[in-house]
Specification:
The complex is a heterodimer of chains A (about 775) and B (about 260). Chain A is of the alpha+beta class. Helix content of chain A is about 30%, strand content about 25%. Chain B has 3 domains: about 5-50, Uridine Diphospho-n-acetylenolpyruvylglucosamine Reductase, domain 2 (2-Layer Sandwich); about 55-165, 2-Layer Sandwich (Uridine Diphospho-n-acetylenolpyruvylglucosamine Reductase, domain 3); about 170-265, Enolase-like, domain 1. Chain B is globular and about 55 Å long. The chains are: A alpha+beta (about 775), B alpha+beta (about 260). The interface between A and B is medium-sized, with 23 and 17 residues. Bound molecules: flavin-adenine dinucleotide.
């Protein structure tokens, strides 16, 4: 019997390493004879690149080599690929302009790579980079999406009107019909603010080429090492898998920004074969701001059709999504299949149509960021539903209850492709309303008012799709990869276990959670299990971690491999205990002949597998080491309700979050403490988006929020105590019955915060506010009302 | 960072001599402003003259009617000082809300005022409390010391040695922090010293710290908080940036002045 199985709040085993400074991050690794790279980056958002004169720099002290786009082009290095092909309304494929790792004819955003300088020290490389003379013809920048679509300036000469694609989903005619018969039409314009991810660890890489074997090794800060191996090896550098190893052990936060295959990875790997020394590159914090893929950045106009009774009858959405200067790895899937397919939300809206125009601009690429598409969708829907409540005079709780999918309607086919497997939204909603003491709000509001403050309460009832998988579905929608997961469960001779997972942990606690799965399965303590990830030289294959997929897709793969181990172990036990296999039962880590006291412990069986003296050798092989791949049949669908209560100081516009309640349905909870932590982190990011964070480029494409002096990262004292809980219906899409918890906090929370602010300010006549709702904006809104 | 010569000065004279013999020398105090500037390669001094070992530049003394704070005294020391917390709690509170603990334990009063960041807190403290800036050459009233954005009356090589604050009858500082940097978007020191009422404002103006005459008039001798709140400050010549418009800053001047006055009692 073990108390470290599913459901136990086992302390995170990785934390001792992290908290005592013993993590092994990329920059902690130094290799013999290592040289350093410095990227010369464009100071302009948009310019024609004429001559890059490296002569003076090449003879600067310590310089080993300098390469430009022309050098890579001469080697026929490929462009950075996009992992998801989207089709236009007319069926034609999206525009996929070239994305050379080092700029060739043009630079397209501030920070675009122009040259790489490799020198004995980082300072020498940087000094030499200042000696490179670059002849730029500065071009007007396309920054604003609307100006870009109007043809302001062509980011890519071969992409008319800067349109990457013009895509649609849903039944347009049915939706038009719903609107023509509507009793009320509510319309809204919302902006989903652009965010800069800011993982604690900046991106970094070390590339090494062994000319004697032809092997390349790249240590890099990635969330998906096998994906990088596939994309970089196959599309950019033509290196076959057996000659390319990608290692990313400890990674200090990703939040989606470390999914993409970045130019620096390809530049370093390619250059490492030229200079015969390992090369290290570590981003400065300013480079992170300038070059990590950003998140969100949508402008949306939407309309909701309702009948006279307040039932939603149709939804029409038109979104413009900024994709930045280049198509990043998953940039095209975020504003489409991860966004518009959720437009039903938790509601029974029967007709939905959504179109998305995706726009190139002279800004850094936009890609997945915690939630990736679902926060944008949730924000739109929950703002719109609140506006509908206000305009029709229906209570915001009532309007949601009235339109919510009921527990007996599952599986529920939405009008936008997804089929929700299981859920019970009204119950979670009620639990949240109680936990937030919604009933008592009026009294709290009166108290605030007597202190000269405005108080408001805001609701967000959300759903999201995660456990990014079914390969067949993803493939049909344009994904260029499968999205299953793999695991290897290696039982060592004395019964301890190493699990190799193709997912990647960069703070999520997989080393603990996954060990608990094995603990539960084998009946052994979790400390007998070690989880290995992040090295393509150790782990057979995998698709990495994003989209809250690790437990929902990677977990069942581990479970399958565990079951294979148990099946084999039963054969061994049956042989040794001289019983038939069918009579062997396995409980609490003991194999027993049913109905007898003849038994073998898990470790005895594993030892027999490796010391096969008395062994069914004609029937099975020695060893106890199993592999499994798992591809689910559907996404999983976490859902829930977030309720935020704010107090606004009308004199200054300062917002104080008085209460924040989150009730999330994440399916089976493997480790309640980790789940709570994930919700905390996600909500912190959601509150950050709602109140604090906003990326600003000026008209020339200079990043005005290029440091913490101007970009407001949430700090501990910006956040309230969070009242979080789960109200789960077991997941139906995978055998672990889990759903995913990594992103719910960031998905559910922003509209709750903004709805609360608008509720607080409604008596003053304010009916709109954009994120981040800074004090200055709130004050201005009050003045303008 | 570019290369520079590093010199640890052993005395005030040693520091001043090293500075004058350098091509383009720069004093180094807490380094909280200077080091990031160097790391971003935005400055290229030939020499850094570190003041850390000049012992008599740090420390707080109670001179009866005034408190004198050595240039190398850190914000944390000022915030926790018994003398300052008991005699000029407004100043201790101001120092205690600069930046974060790391910044407060490195950053110094001398470095802060020599730098004269238009969003820094000390300039408002110095002008509001009618402090005297003491250098190796002279003594200057704070109002004459802070001349413009990042500009002071310091001459080439002149060393700030201390700041002397007369003990006010009443004083309080109210700061509206920039949500990102936590510097002041608007900070107002309201003080009454020897019968004179002052309201010194930082963060707001295009030319750095200033005394708000209309606010001072409204506050009067009774530090009338309600009257200060009613003052409509002009937005002319106030800063506007992505964090706050000039109008918002103008409005916050009245609000922060009123809150400071209320706190000063
Ligand atoms: C993250 C962060 C947050 C901050 N937040 C705030 C804030 O909220 N409010 C605020 O007011 N400040 C803030 N600061 C600035 C901080 O207070 C600095 O300490 C201050 O600006 C400079 O002091 P220093 O001792 O570090 O000086 P240094 O950085 O060492 O020097 C600054 C300049 O002053 C010169 N100098 C230093 N000492 C002398 C001297 N004795 N005589 C003549 N010249 C001298 C130097 O040559 C240099 O040019 C912040 C800084 C950081 C990094």
């Amino acid at each position: 019997m073990t108390d470290t199985g599913i459901g136990a709040s086992v302390r995170r085993v990785e934390d001792k390493r992290f908290l005592t400074g013993r993590g092994n991050y990329t920059d902690d690794i130094d290799q013999h004879g290592q040289a350093y790279a410095w990227m010369l980056r464009s100071p302009h958002a948009h310019a024609r690149l004429n001559n890059v004169d490296t002569a003076a720099a090449a003879s600067a002290p310590g310089v080993i080599a300098i390469f430009t786009g022309a050098d890579m082009a001469a080697d026929e290095v490929g462009g950075l690929p996009c992992g998801w092909q989207i089709h236009n309304k007319d069926g034609s494929p999206m525009n996929e302009p070239a994305h050379p790792p080092l700029a060739v004819d043009k630079v397209r955003h501030v920070g675009d790579q122009v040259a790489v300088v490799i020198a004995e020290t980082k300072a020498q490389a940087r000094d030499a980079a200042e000696l490179i003379a670059v002849d730029y013809d500065v071009l007007p920048a396309a920054i604003d999406m609307n100006a870009a679509l109007a043809g302001a300036s062509a980011v890519h000469d071969d992409v008319p009107d800067n349109m990457c694609f013009d895509w649609e989903i849903g039944d347009k005619d049915a939706t038009e019909t719903a609107f023509s018969g509507a009793a009320h039409v509510i319309s809204i314009d919302v902006v989903n603010n652009r965010l800069i991810p800011n993982a604690m660890e900046p991106r970094a890489a070390i590339a090494h080429h062994d000319s004697s074997t032809g092997h390349y090794t790249l240590h890099t800060t990635t969330q998906n090492p096998h994906v990088i191996r596939l994309l970089m090896g196959a599309f950019v550098l033509q290196i076959p898998e057996h000659k390319l190893r990608i290692v990313s052990h400890d990674v200090g936060g990703g939040f989606g920004s470390k999914i993409s295959h970045y130019a620096e990875e390809a530049i370093l790997t390619w250059a490492s074969a030229k200079v015969t020394q390992p090369i290290k590159w570590v981003a400065e914090r300013s480079e992170s701001f300038m070059t990590d893929a950003h998140g969100r950045d949508h402008e949306t106009h939407a309309e909701l059709a309702m009948d006279a009774d307040g039932n939603f009858t149709g939804l029409r959405v038109a979104t413009k999504a900024n994709i930045g200067a280049y198509l990043s790895t998953f940039g095209s899937s975020v504003p489409t299949y991860l966004y518009a397919t959720l437009m039903a939300g938790v509601y029974t809206t029967p007709a939905i149509y959504c179109e998305v125009k995706t726009v190139f601009t002279n800004t850094v690429p936009v890609d997945a960021y915690r939630g990736a598409g679902r926060p944008e969708c949730t924000y739109l829907l929950e703002r719109l539903v609140n506006k509908a409540a206000r305009e029709t005079g229906i209570d915001p709780v009532e309007i949601r209850r009235k339109n919510m999918i009921q527990a007996d309607q599952f599986p529920y086919q939405t009008p936008v492709a997804l089929q929700y497997d299981v859920g019970d939204y009204p119950t979670a909603f009620n639990t949240a309303l109680q936990a937030a003491d919604y009933e008592g709000f009026a009294q709290r509001r009166a108290e605030s008012e007597s202190n000269g403050k405005q108080r408001g309460i805001g609701i967000s009832t959300y759903i999201e799709a995660c456990g990014i998988a079914p390969s067949a579905v993803a493939g049909a929608l344009g994904a260029r990869a499968g999205l299953y997961e793999s695991a290897q469960v290696r039982v060592h001779p004395t019964g301890s276990v190493t699990v190799y997972t193709g997912t990647h942990s960069h703070g999520q606690g997989h080393e603990t959670t996954f060990a608990q799965l094995v603990s539960e399965s084998f009946g052994i303590p979790a400390d007998q299990v070690e989880v290995s990830h992040g090295d393509t030289g150790e782990v057979q294959f995998g698709m990495g971690t994003y989209g809250s997929r690790s437990l929902a897709v990677g977990g069942p793969a581990i479970l399958k491999a565990c079951n294979k181990v148990i099946d084999k172990a039963k054969k061994i036990a049956a042989h040794i205990l001289e019983a038939s296999e069918a009579d062997i039962e396995f409980t609490d880590g003991v194999f027993r002949v049913s109905g007898t006291d003849r038994e073998m412990a898990f470790g005895e069986v594993s030892l027999a597998a490796y010391v096969p003296h008395n062994y069914p050798i004609e029937e099975i092989e020695p060893g106890l080491d199993e592999n499994a791949f798992y591809d689910p049949l559907n996404f999983s669908f976490p859902a829930g309700c977030h309720i935020c209560e704010v107090e606004v100081d009308p004199d200054t516009g300062v917002i104080d979050i008085a209460n924040f309640t989150a009730v999330d349905d994440v399916g089976r909870v493997v480790n309640p403490m980790i789940v709570e932590g994930q919700v905390h982190g996600g909500v912190a990011q959601g509150i950050g988006q709602a109140l604090l964070e906003g990326c600003v480029y000026d008209d020339a494409g200079q990043l005005l929020t290029g440091s913490y002096m101007d970009y407001t990262m949430p700090r501990a004292d910006d956040l309230p105590n969070l009242n979080v809980g789960t109200q789960s219906v077991m997941g139906a899409s995978n055998p672990l019955e889990v759903k995913g918890v990594g992103e719910v906090g960031a998905i559910g929370s922003p509209p709750a915060v903004i709805n609360a602010i608008l509720d607080a300010l409604a008596p003053l006549g304010v009916d709109d506010i954009s994120m981040p709702a800074t004090p200055s904006k709130v004050w201005q809104a009050i003045q303008n009302a | 960072m570019y290369n520079f010569n590093y010199k640890k000065a052993s005395s005030r004279d040693d520091a001043v001599a090293a500075q004058s013999s350098a091509d383009d020398g720069s004093y180094l105090a807490g380094g909280m402003t200077l080091i990031p500037t160097l790391k971003q390669r935005l400055a290229q001094p030939s020499d850094l003259i570190d003041l850390a070992d000049v012992g008599d530049l740090a420390g707080i003394s109670d001179d009866g009617g005034a408190i004198t704070i050595g240039a190398m005294t850190t914000h944390a020391t000022v915030a926790e000082s018994e003398v300052v917390t008991s005699k000029i709690p407004a100043l201790a509170a101001l120092a205690g809300h600069i930046g974060d603990p790391q910044v407060r334990n490195r950053g110094t009063i001398g470095g802060s005022i020599a730098n004269n960041d238009p969003a820094a807190d000390y300039p408002a403290g110095c002008v509001g409390l009618n402090a005297t800036i003491i250098t190796n050459k002279r003594e200057l009233p704070a109002e004459d010391f802070f001349t413009d954005l990042f500009e002071t009356a310091l001459e080439e090589g002149e060393l700030v040695t201390a700041v002397s604050f007369p003990i006010p009858d009443k004083a309080a500082y109210a700061k509206f922090p920039n949500p990102a940097s936590r510097y002041a978007i608007v900070g107002v020191m309201v003080a009454q010293t020897g019968g004179e009422t002052r309201a010194a404002v930082t963060g707001a103006s295009q030319s750095g710290v200033f005394r708000a005459a209309d606010i001072e008039a409204a506050l009067g001798s009774g530090l009338d908080a309600a009257a200060a709140k009613e003052v409509k400050v002009s937005a002319d010549n106030l800063n506007a940036d992505i964090h706050a418009s000039a109008e918002y800053r103008a409005h916050l001047i009245s609000i922060m002045a009123s809150r400071a006055a209320a706190a000063a009692g």
